[in-house]
Amino acid sequence: MAGIRTRAWLLDVALAAFAASAAVLLTxxxxxxxxxxxxxxxxxxxxxxGSVLVLRRVSxxxxxxxxxxxxxxxxxxGMPVFMLGPAILVTLYTAAxxxxxxxxxxxxxxxxALTAVLxxxxxxxxxxxLSWVQYSALLAGAWFLGDIVRRWQRAAAEHAxxxxxxxxxxxxxSRLAVNAERIRIARELHxxxxxxxxxxxxxxxSGRLAAAxxxxxxxxxxxxxxxxSRHALAEMRRLVTVxxxxxxxxxxxxxxxxxxxxxxxxxxxxxxxxxxxxxTEGDLADVPDGVSLAAYRIVxxxxxxxxxxxxxxxVHLTIAVDEDRVRLDVxxxxxxxxxxxxxxxxxxxxxxxxxxxxxxxxxxxGHGTVGMRERATLYGGELSIGPGPDGGWRxxxxxxxxxxxx
Length: 406
Fold this sequence. Notes:
The protein is of the alpha/beta class. The protein has ten helices and six strands, in the order H-H-H-H-H-H-H-H-E-H-E-E-E-H-E-E.
């Protein structure tokens, strides 16, 4: 910035020196026969008329005023105004560039009118008219050139401002995208970790209690813990790999789960204690990927809440694929005794589940409930979460097949 200002100041000094030199040389050629005092005054007026350009960027109106006064005095001493040289052209150009359009037009009008008066005072009509037309054209040309430059500068400044705003908007959108991606990944991690940790905790506790009196049951519990932990680690590795944005043609993480994988999910839940009655309608594999993942996560979170809050109880899971939507219904009995001692996984007509009675704990304000509602809303579906008709807890709703984000 300092370098630019220095170059501008040097340019103004050079212009002022050139204009003053031109005015002094022209005046000196025509005043050789005049008395020394008059000649000296005219040369001084010519020098001031040109050298005042050094202040043209500071105040163009002040420069124009000084040049008008020196021009009037110059003509009053008997010299033609055009012998003062090109200084007035530079002043009008600067006024058009730096002043508002209205103020610049006023400056042009004053210069044109004063030039006409001064030229008329020193010439007869025919010569005056031709000289005035030529000189006025020069003044107007200098002004129009400055006006064009002013418009270019303002357009460039406006484009720079818009570019800055667009860059800021791009950065804001990038931050919003990053935050949205963090929220999505956090939801995915919650869905994976909460479900798997609930199953692992349940079986770890069962294995600890059965270690002394039933080694075989303890072994089965440890197998479930191992399988669930492996599954959780695979899911987390998939998410971490996405975060790292590994650039390779054949990534080694598993695809996102689908509704057609719900049997594996139900087997894990049933192994943790609840007896799950499953009823499906339609082809789960035909559900679009986005809706299928969202529905799977909703079912996963609902079953995880049963394991966490209701303990060993009977759960009814219904997944129905219609022509235009997927209907989901997960309801439990609230931890009431169901009559057997072993967990199970059956069809709708299957026997009761197992375990001890545990009262259901409503979980309507946790992160899992929020995540389920967000997933349903994202795809234009509906989801109700609350107490069921049998005293347990129920998650029911639907997702439209046609509202898949593309």
